[in-house]
């Protein structure tokens, strides 16, 4: 049992290191080819709108997992910077739909290329790992995900 505790401790410490690194990345803006830097939360909002053109604020908040107030603030900022436009729904005059501007589409495409290049690099980096090992790792991640959900304060 002592070996299992040691293994779990090592596993969790590695996850904490990765989480901390991801948190730092979330604070770092990046230029996706439009001449200005966007924070990950901004480009992921652009990505969600690009993938779902004409989405409304409520649906966008569900997809991003953040409050409608948070989405509204982000939308205002991105609209002011020229990445998105708000349009009225043809079916419901009260509903506001979100679409990308040409500048927003350029950022979206730059982000897609960034991820494509990153994933290809990661695939090449993991070339020495078998599919069976990856499948075991995915199963471990699923278990960690379930574990974290059990201890999440609701």
Task: For the structure shown, list the relevant keywords.
154 residues; mainly alpha; two-stranded antiparallel sheet; 5 strands
Which fold name corresponds to the CATH topology of the domain at 33-109? Arc Repressor Mutant, subunit A
Anisotropy-based shape: elongated
CATH architecture of the domain at 33-109: Orthogonal Bundle
Q: What value does the average pLDDT take?
A: 92
CATH C-level of the domain at 33-109:
Mainly Alpha
**CATH homologous superfamily assignment of the domain at 33-109:** Winged helix-like DNA-binding domain superfamily/Winged helix DNA-binding domain
SSE string, helix = H, strand = E?
HEEHEHHEEHH
- How is the biggest beta sheet arranged? 3 strands, antiparallel
Q: Which strand order does the major sheet show?
A: 3-5-4
Q: Indicate the structural class.
A: mainly alpha
Q: Roughly what percent helix?
A: 55-70%
N-to-C terminal Cα separation, in Å?
Answer: 31 Å
Assembly state: single chain
General description of the model:
This protein has a domain at 33-109: Winged helix-like DNA-binding domain superfamily/Winged helix DNA-binding domain (Arc Repressor Mutant, subunit A). The two termini are 31 Å apart. The chain contains six helices and five strands. It is mainly alpha-helical and 154 residues long. The strands form two sheets. It has a three-stranded antiparallel beta sheet. A two-stranded antiparallel sheet has the order 1-2. Strand 1 (30-31) and strand 2 (37-38) form a beta hairpin.
Note the topology.
Blueprint: H1 2-25, E1 30-31, E2 37-38, H2 40-51, E3 55-56, H3 57-64, H4 68-80, E4 84-88, E5 96-100, H5 102-125, H6 131-151
Antiparallel strand pairs: 1-2, 3-5, 4-5
Helix pairs in contact: 2-4, 2-5, 3-4
